[in-house]
Write a structure and sequence with these properties.
Elements (H helix, E strand, L loop, with lengths): L1 H7 L7 H32 L4 H25 L2 H25 L2 H34 L2 H29 L5 H20 L22 H8 L1 H31 L3 H56 L3 H27 L4 H32 L4 H8 L2 H27 L12
C-alpha cells in the first residue's frame, strides 16, 4: 500500500500520517465552505450589483474585528488549542444562524439576516482556509511543501466537489439551515484533525507547541518593514481585485439570465463542481511537477497570464457562457496552481509571521483588495464602462502581476537556501560517537 501511495506523491514514510491528516483536514474545511458558498453567492446575485459594495464594506469591518481577536488568541495559546477553538466558534455561529432562519419570518430573513450571513461566510471562508495553510506552513519545511502541498490541496478540491454536489443536488429540497448543520459537522472533524496531528516530525522542537507570544499589532509592523511580505500582500491584492471584478460580472449576468433563486443556486453550485473537478486533475498531474521543474515563480505567473486571456475573451464576447467558462478556469488555476505555490512562499517565514503576518495578508489584505474592486466596479460603470470596458481595464494588470510573481519566486528560493544553510551542520563537525 505504501509503495502505491509513494508513486502518487513524493512522500517519505515518516510523512505519510501527517500527509493523510492534512488531506482530510483540507477536505472538510473546503467541503464545509462549499456547502454554504452557493447560498452566499445566491444572496449576492439576489441583492444586485448595486448593493454588493456595501456588503463588501461590511465584510472588511468584520475582518478587522476577527483579525484582532485572532491575533490575541494566537499570542496566548498553542496552535493545537487556538485552531480548534476558532473552528468551534464558527460552529456556534452556524447553529445561531440555523435557529434564526427557523424562527424569523422569510421576509425578515431576506431583508436583514441574508446580508449578515453573506458577510459572515466571506469572513469565515478566509479564516478557515488561512488557519489551515498557516498550520501547514508551520509543520512542513519548504522542501516538503514543494513535494506535498499539491497533494494536500487535492483534499480541498475533492471537498469542494463533494460540498458543491451536496448543495447542487439538494437545493430546493432541504432548508438553508440544514446546509449550515452539514458545514458544522465538517468543521468539528477539522478541529479533531488538528488535535490528532503528529508532533513536529521535522525538528522535534518543543517550542513549536508553545504560544507564539508577541504583541497584537506585530503582524502589521512586520509587513511594513519587509519587502518580501509587502510583495506577498500586493500579489494577493491584485488577485482579489480582479477576482472581485469577475465576481461582480458573474452576479450581474446571473441576475439577468436566471430569475429563479433555486436555479441560480444550482447553477452556481454546478460551477463550483466544475472548478473543483478540473482543480483535482491539475493538482494530481501538474502542480507538484510544475513547482519541481520550473520553481514557484513560474507556477505563480500562470495565473496572471490566464486572467489576462480570460478578461480579453469577455471583452470580445460578454455572455454568461463565456463568463462561466472563464470563472471555472480561473478559479481552478487559483486553487490548483496559485494557492499551493503561494503557500510555499510562506514556509520560509518565522513562526510568528506564519500566523500573524500571514493571517493579516490572507484576510484583511484579501478583503482590502475586494474593497478596491467592489467600489471601483460601480465607479467604472458610472463612467460608462460596461462588462466589455471593465474586462479590457483588467487585462493590463496581468503584466504587473507576472513581474511580481517572478520576483517573489526568486526571493523565496534565496530565503529557503539561506534557511537551509543556517540549519545545516558546520563543515567538519562530527557526531559524538564518530568523534
Amino acid at each position: 500500500m505504501k509503495r502505491v501511495f509513494t508513486k502518487i506523491v513524493d512522500v517519505k514514510p515518516n510523512e505519510i500520517r501527517a500527509l493523510l491528516l492534512a488531506f482530510v483536514f483540507n477536505f472538510v474545511v473546503l467541503g464545509g465552505y462549499y456547502v454554504i458558498r452557493p447560498i452566499r453567492d445566491e444572496i449576492g446575485a439576489d441583492r444586485g450589483v448595486e448593493n454588493l459594495p456595501w456588503m463588501y464594506t461590511g465584510t472588511l469591518i468584520g475582518m478587522l474585528i476577527a483579525n484582532a481577536l485572532y491575533a490575541a488568541i494566537v499570542a496566548r495559546m498553542s496552535r493545537r488549542r487556538f485552531i480548534p477553538i476558532a473552528y468551534r466558534f464558527a460552529i456556534a455561529n452556524l447553529f445561531l444562524f440555523f435557529l434564526l432562519m427557523r424562527w424569523m419570518p422569510a421576509a425578515q430573513v431576506r431583508a436583514t439576516l441574508a446580508p449578515i450571513f453573506f458577510i459572515w461566510v466571506s469572513v469565515f471562508n478566509l479564516f478557515a482556509t488561512t488557519m489551515f495553510w498557516s498550520f501547514m506552513a508551520d509543520v512542513f519545511a519548504p522542501e516538503q511543501g514543494k513535494r506535498l502541498f499539491g497533494f494536500i490541496a487535492v483534499g480541498g478540491s475533492i471537498g469542494g466537489i463533494v460540498g458543491g454536489f451536496v448543495t447542487s443536488s439538494l437545493a430546493g429540497k432541504l432548508s438553508t439551515g440544514l446546509f449550515l448543520l452539514i458545514t458544522a459537522v465538517m468543521l468539528e472533524i477539522a478541529a479533531q484533525c488538528v488535535r490528532r496531528f503528529p508532533a513536529d516530525f521535522r525538528t522535534h522542537d518543543e517550542r513549536s507547541e508553545q504560544p507564539i507570544g508577541g504583541k497584537l499589532w506585530e503582524g502589521a509592523t512586520h509587513i511594513a518593514r519587509s519587502p518580501y511580505l509587502l510583495g506577498l500582500a500586493a500579489f494577493l491584492m491584485i488577485y482579489t481585485l480582479t477576482n472581485t471584478w469577475a465576481y461582480f460580472q458573474q452576479a450581474d449576468l446571473t441576475q439577468h439570465h436566471l430569475q429563479d433563486r433555486a436555479a441560480r443556486t444550482s447553477f452556481l453550485a454546478n460551477i463550483d463542481i466544475a472548478v473543483n473537478t478540473i482543480t483535482v486533475l491539475i493538482q494530481i498531474f501538474l502542480t507538484g511537477r510544475l513547482m519541481k521543474w520550473f520553481g514557484v515563480g513560474i507556477t505563480l505567473v500562470l495565473m496572471p497570464l490566464l486572467s489576462a486571456v480570460g478578461f480579453a475573451a469577455i471583452g470580445f464576447a460578454p455572455v454568461l457562457t463565456v463568463l462561466a467558462t472563464f470563472q471555472i478556469l480561473r478559479r481552478a488555476a487559483g486553487f490548483a496552481l496559485l494557492r499551493p505555490a503561494r503557500e510555499v512562499l510562506f514556509t520560509v517565514l518565522r513562526r510568528e509571521d506564519k500566523y500573524k503576518a500571514k493571517s493579516l495578508i490572507d484576510t484583511f489584505g484579501y478583503r482590502f483588495g475586494d474593497q478596491i474592486g467592489a467600489w471601483s466596479y460601480p465607479l467604472m460603470r458610472w463612467f460608462g464602462l460596461g462588462l466589455v470596458g471593465i474586462s479590457w481595464v483588467a487585462g493590463p494588470l496581468g503584466a504587473i502581476w507576472c513581474v511580481l510573481g517572478i520576483w517573489l519566486g526568486r526571493n523565496q528560493r534565496q530565503l529557503a537556501e539561506a534557511k537551509r544553510d543556517q540549519t545545516a551542520p558546520l563543515p567538519g563537525a562530527a557526531a559524538p560517537e564518530a568523534a
